[in-house]
Structure formats: C-alpha cells, structure tokens
Design a protein that fits this description.
This is Aminodeoxychorismate lyase. The strands form two sheets. This protein has an eight-stranded mixed sheet. Strands 1-2-3 form a three-stranded antiparallel sheet. The chain contains six helices and eleven strands. The chain has two domains: about 120 residues, no CATH class; about 150 residues, D-amino Acid Aminotransferase, Chain A, domain 2 (Alpha-Beta Barrel), CATH 3.20.10. By secondary structure, it is of the alpha/beta class.
C-alpha cells in the first residue's frame, strides 16, 4: 500500500481470560473488559488522527469502539465476510498452540482519513499463560540467567543491516508497512500473516534502536538491571503495552545514546510486546 493511500490501524484481542486480570480492569474505568487495553488503543487512534490532521470521529470513543468490536464479533460468528483483507497484519498467528475460534479473537480496527471506522474479528490462539504480561517480570540474574518458557518459544531476533528512517509512519501505526516488510525481507522473514519465530530489530538514521517489525522491545541495561525501551524521540511506535509497562515501572525509557545499534549484544535476551500478544521474550542472533 502506498504512502498516499493508507488507514490508521490498531490491533487488539478479545479474550475472556482478560476479565480476570485486575490490571486490564483498571485501565477500563474499573470495569472488567475482555478487550486488551482497549482504552489505550482508542486514545492512540485519536492521537494518530490528530498527528495526521485527520478528523477524529465520534465512533473513536471507547464506548462506540467497543460497540463496533462487538458487532464485528457477531458478524464473525454468523459467517459474515471480512470487509478488509488481513494480508498485512495478523500478529496473533505468531503464537504457538491451537486456535480457539470460540473464545479468543484478534480485533483489527481501521480509521480512514475521512473518519470512517471499521472493525473486523478473526480467530486467535489462546494466551499460553494466565497473565500475558508475566514475561516482563523476569530479569536475568546469577540465579536465573535463562528465562522460563512462559509457554512460548523464544523469538530469534536479528539486528537489521540498514537504517529505517523515523517518520510519521513509524510514530503512528498504519496500513502503510513497506518499511517494516523491507526489514523482514532482508532476513527472509515473510510478511504477516505468515507465521515465523524470527524477528528483526530496526534502527533509525542516527543508529538509535527503535522497535521490531511488529513489536516494541526492551533490553536489559543499567545496574541494578532494568528493562530499557527506546524513547519515543527515536521515532518508535508508542505502543499500548509499552505505555502500560512504563506506567507500571516494569520498563523505563532509554537515555540518549543508551540503546544504539553498536551496543546490541549477540545472545542477549530481549523483551518484546504488542497489543495482541502481550509480552514475549526473544534472543539476539
């Protein structure tokens, strides 16, 4: 899709398991919700629309967005056709394990430059652990140098070989993803929705680490060790799980020059996160 023809995009999930998690309830005005951080998705869509100078529709309010999500679920249950192809972004397919058609759904929200909002639902594998944010609580130490599995295989994470310049298309999530797909292609990683345990770390024109092709990320730095994520000044996407992890103090933003391309260490563990998977661990190849 060309840079002149794109929609704003946000992808979350609906899962009954989320109803049992107090942290998800707290960000939903203290009301239990089966949607992962839906209020954060809603706010990010509005912020992105303003950045692109697009109209912000009333249907981007939290209650209206939830109604659209429920309508998309009903459409999926009755076998209605998906009005928007999913050829470029189906993060949930990167889980291992069986797909649960009845309970876990990936929810994909598109906002057009005219202010039209469309929502589609597709099957997603269930969470492999009770709390999808649990991997963020692990840090390597002398007594625990390697992480538990958390029910998922480690991602094999490659450092890109050329920079991806920061732009409005890295600072906002859109259907224009050529730059991300180009980074994946340099390591023969197929574009989503093709499943892969490989991922690529991007860096900008100043050699600052920014994100991966479909996830935010954090590295272990400092003493005592902390998960450190690239600052938004690098041009990375301000992801919804990133926002939550920062608010909980589980990750911190990097200082200037703290996360540089040349400082990435072969074999080190990386924490990755997005609005469908929650948190997941990988290792630099």
């Amino acid at each position: 899709m060309s840079a002149s023809q794109f929609d704003l995009l946000s992808t979350t999930r609906r899962d009954p398991q989320l109803l049992q998690l107090p942290w998800n309830t707290s960000v939903n005005a203290s009301s239990p919700s089966p949607y992962l951080l839906l209020s954060y998705h809603c706010e990010r869509l509005r912020d992105a629309a303003e950045l692109h100078n697009w109209p912000v529709p009333r249907s981007s309010s939290l209650s209206a967005l939830e109604d659209l999500c429920e309508a998309a679920l009903n459409d999926a249950r009755t076998g209605g056709e998906d009005p928007v192809p999913h050829e470029h972004y189906r993060v949930a397919m990167f889980f291992t394990g069986p797909v649960s058609n009845a309970h876990s759904k990936q929810i994909r929200v598109l906002l057009s430059r005219t202010g039209a909002v469309s929502v589609t639902a597709s099957p997603a594998p269930p969470f492999p652990i009770p709390d999808p944010m649990a991997p963020s609580l692990w840090l390597p130490s002398a007594s625990s140098p390697d992480p538990p599995s958390f029910g998922l295989d480690l991602l094999a994470i490659h450092l890109d070989t050329v920079p991806t310049p920061s732009s409005v298309f890295t600072r906002t999530k859109t259907t224009h993803r050529d730059h991300y797909n180009a980074a994946r292609s340099r390591f023969a990683i197929p574009p989503p929705p093709s499943p892969s345990l490989d991922e690529v770390v991007l860096f900008n024109e100043n050699d600052d680490i920014t994100e991966t092709s479909i996830r935010n990320l954090a590295f272990v730095r400092r003493s005592p060790p902390r998960w450190v994520t690239p600052a938004t000044s690098t041009g990375c996407l301000p992801g919804v799980v990133r926002r939550w992890l920062l608010g909980q103090g589980r990750i911190v933003e990097g200082d200037e020059d703290e996360l540089k391309k040349d400082n990435v260490i072969h074999g080190e563990y990386v924490l990755t996160f997005n609005g469908v998977e929650g948190c997941r661990l990988g290792r630099i190849q």
